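Input.
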Amino acid sequence: MYRILFPLFGCLFGLLTLEGILAAGGFAPEVVYIEKWRMRLSPNAKIGFEPIPHLDSTNKSVQFYGYSGASNSLGFRDKERSIERPDGVVRRILALGDSTTAGLWIENDADVYPAQLEKLYADERRAIEVLNFGVNGYNTSQEVEMLREKGLQYKPDLIVLGYCLNDRFQDDGGIYGFLIEEAKKSKSPNIADAGISSNLNAGYARLFSESALYRVLRFQVLPQFQKQLPDSTKRDPQKFWTDSVEDSFRALRVLSESNRFQVLVAILPELLPIDFNNLEYRAFSEHKKISQLSQELGFYVIDLLEPLKKCKLENPNELIAFDRYHARPYGNQCIAKAIKSYIDSQIW
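Output.
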């Protein structure tokens, strides 16, 4: 027994001694954990920023985190998904989009339209997975690049691209610029940015970050063996202001051809005119442009304006919208039903 315990106590004593020396000497970097909108800078400058994996914001500010709950190992608002298709699953749908797809301000994960779509199929005993890759603040170029980098490994049969009418420009609430500035502040040798590189659950990250030994290993030793994040001082906080919808759609077509999946573009309309008849709808031209572009590239396309109007007529006391672009749970339910109906009648 002593032969086992003595080395263990010796190791523990050594670690505690090293911890004390590093802490007292100020050798460990301080940690600045960036959680604004659940985001961190991405090593891929084409994406810019990405959601933090395993970040649990249960019982925390929805205004700050976007929703209450835990993200999965990729940072998305979805349950954990195996890369290999589970036995019995006959189809895989991957939903791309921005906060309208991620379910901004919706309390329950099950009320977001990708989850509702999966449940509609489950209710019919159809084993179809619907993966939610929606990210708050993304535009189309970021969504397509995220698909290329992290989504293709799941070998989807169908991509549902939730096209929000603000996707032609950068509408991220300033988060990318905020993250760049925070990263610049952390460039001194004594500060590390945990918001960029930590894949730990937020609670564990804070616990471990109290350890000087952990901080030395995590932010000074391990980075010597890891791919380095591009210098944040060379990043343009307005990179995604450029209208890249057409180019992004064409890039999506190339991916669809080389990876053998189909694409359904779901045009998400402005919502307030649906709830309030006195408001004039002024976005018809953008609907037409996206519909024509989708058809030109051989994509399926569904304009959700009329289905949502029909939903409102069926339940006039139910509100569709939180605001101009973001649907309430009932609106998400209507979106899921309309998308399923289109898929069943036109695709599968």
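Residues 29-35, 188-203 have pLDDT under 50 and may be disordered.
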